[in-house]
Amino acid sequence: MTLEIGLATLAAGGVIGYLWQRSKSCSISGYRDLYLFHDTLFMRTIIGMALGALVGYLLFFRFSPYMANFPLMLHNEPGADSLATLVLALIGGLGYAFFSVLAEGCPLRQHVNATTGNGAAIIYLVGFYVGILFFQFVMVNYVNVFQRII
Amino acid sequence: MALANKQLAASSTQGQVQRKAKGWTTDKLVAGFVTGLWAAIAQAVFFIGPPSAYGICFISHPSDLIDWIVNHLFGTALYVHDPSVDIPVLTVVGVLLGAGVATLRNKEFSFRMPRRPLDHFINGFFVAVFGLTLGYCSVHIIMAVMYGSFVALIGLMGMLTGVVISVNYLKWRVRL
Q1: What is the C-alpha to C-alpha distance for residues A85 and B51, in angstroms, rounded to an integer?
Q2: Could you report the per-residue pLDDT of A47-87, keeping only the tens digit for each?
Q3: What is the spatial distance between Cα B43 and Cα B30, in angstroms, rounded to a whole number?
Q4: Chain A residues near residue B52 by CB distance under 8 angstroms
Q5: Is residue A14 within 8 Å of residue A96, measured between CB atoms?
Q6: Which pLDDT tens digit goes with each residue over A4-60?
Q7: ipTM of the assembly?
Q8: A140 touching chain B per CB within 8 A
Q9: Chain A: nearest CA to B176, how far in angstroms?
Q10: HSE-up of A25 (CA within 13 Å, CB side)?
Q11: Would you call B149 helix, strand, or coil by DSSP?
């Protein structure tokens, strides 16, 4: 089963990577351009994602036991209904968007850009993976403490 | 205000200048739609989860992959999500391969160094740290909001606020 998941994500990633490279899509530039220039070109990616997910969920939720929660809008994951989780989501979202706008692209866009030889994206990815390890080794302890306090 | 906007548009400071694509291209709407559809297929057909809507995420999937590798190399016990325990999700590898094939087929590869490399390193670092604090990337959060996650909705509001603050910070920096 897990080999299936590995291969499925590899194949889907390949298709998505190809399409995102050919369409120069980005999932954060849409908000930036809409606010800054009132330009909706990059919002097409975000609208497409929302439509695709909605159509997919509506198609599949009747057949799959893994989607039993879907019609119950605004549910929470088990263990993710505390105030601490909401505060962390708000802070995390704020910081993520702030630095993504400075970097001129979401992480998926940066992975795609790196394959075109864009040095900025390659250095971004080095920082990105160092950041992941920093979070997992150091920050995760503070996040746990924060969740215990609130 | 208009002048600052023009300056900001003209500067394109980070060296990611938009170039006209050669060869076959597709609409952003199509790319987004396929991505969203995959999130539903992943959950309904391949049972990828928990968490919900986990078909694609460019915070958690890179994190799962790198944590899995570090765990197997150094015997650490870094957190990986349930679908990645035995074999990690390989979306990152797939995207790099897919985008790499697209780049090579259309002869778009050209290596170019940015002017201020440290800025990009810092941006990547903090995107990862804040993204893991949130638990979603800007792709996954759309799927999760469509699925109905309240935490994701709060995260998306945080994101929109972050975009507004960041754009105003950029305007302020350009005006100086």
Answers
A1: 14
A2: 999 999 999 988 887 676 666 666 555 555 555 667 888 89
A3: 20
A4: 69, 77
A5: no
A6: 889 999 999 999 999 999 999 999 999 999 999 999 999 999 999 999 999 998 888
A7: 0.91
A8: yes
A9: 17
A10: 31
A11: strand
